Amino acid sequence: MTPPRQDGLAMDNTAFRRIGHSLVDTVATFLDSLPDRAVTRHRTPAELRAVLDADRPLPEAGADPETLLGRAAELLMSESLFNGHPRFFGYVTASPAHIGILAELLAAAVNANVGAHQLAPIATEIEAQTVRWIAELIRYPGDCGGLFVSGGNMANFTALLTARAAAAEWNVRAAGIGDASAQPFRIYASEETHTWVQKGADMAGIGTDAIRWIPTDAALQIDVGCLRTTLEQDRKDGARPLMVIATAGSVSTGAVDPLFELADVCRAADVWLHVDGAYGAFAAGVPGAPPALQGLSLADSVAVDPHKWLYAPIEAGCVLVRDREALRRTFSFHPTYYHFGQEVTNYVDFGPQNSRGFRALKVWLALQHVGREGYRKSIAEDMRLSRELYAHVDVHPELQALTQMLSITTFRYVPPGLADSSAHAGVAAYLNALNHRLLDRLQESGEAFVSNAVIDGQFALRACIVNFNTCEADVAALPDVVAKMGRAVAAEMDEQASTNVSGASA
Question: Is pTM, for the whole model, over 0.85?
Fold first, then answer.
């Protein structure tokens, strides 16, 4: 056997096994300990830089890998926000499945570049099978095109570029959107749409001014009548409606747009229907989920995030497109140094990346490990716990329940005696300021982690459950945690106001 190069990169197999086994033990202990840890330790950036010794120069000489990995584990396991903690309710970021954690190790070991079949033969076929399984899971046509990307933003952006290429009556890839014959594009999205649409419109050269923001109704769903009127007016004004974006699980509240109605509107208007289902689409086959999710099958494209409700480690986004060849028409280029051919799947032809990591492996393994029924049960339990949280909040004398959809509950702290006057302008402003400060206190505490939403002008606390570690006890404990901190924050604000009044009168 040829001896390894003496540049410090190769590691002796005996040492690799010892260090690897030790690291797996450390990770397993960490996962077991999560319920006993704080959700996060509040550290300022300056404090974190001090812990890291951030100003030290790049080392000239190498160091012992076992020591380095131990130090890295210590930093990450003490100075992180743990989205796998049972009382992490902050964002639609799931607890990572154990099999996905191990899959990341396996994928890194093979280090497949899933840009071309020749470079990653079995990885390419695994990705293709996983895309089809995801389509089956959300009841989308199984013969669709699709690929894995980094997350929801890139999945949605890939769909937008595909719609742009399909809608243009000129060669938009060559001439761009400034072609002399080009009609100005228009994009239609509700006010609840995720901010990816601004980034996407900007990056696609369409511009954010081309977004038509459609109001929502009382259920926070897109106003279909207003959408229809806006589409008609834009056509009369000489614009080209490009894409209607439906949301299947909004970030703020989990609202699902009326997909069947939107499909009818888009079909009549000859407009691409895209569904941002990054969060909610995976609930399509789950009992108790909004019936509108059955309309996913009617969309021209759908974005989903397996690192949300399939509990895959980040990163794992996926885009599905009804017309598989539309992806190729959007992204395929063949310079002279590429000789891959089209008889096999080369993902370089279906998306913006050339070099692509093996994101699909962790999802492929998890889908088989858990199965369709397992995911149904887990997602259903997340939704049930969210409803339980709403019920607990609704009967709490110091909390006001606002919304509950999918696995998101929104609510706010209202001090005793203010509930009946909360609509008064001065009281409303006070409650918004109180809950804003309360949010900061909760996030810094480490007891539980929630985020926020704005509901009808009311600053709300938002608890989202996409976490197989969360149980009934965690949900039942949250209202009292919030109320206890709410009382403390209210007392501080009242004392500050009193001090300010006293100072002014003096």
Answer: yes
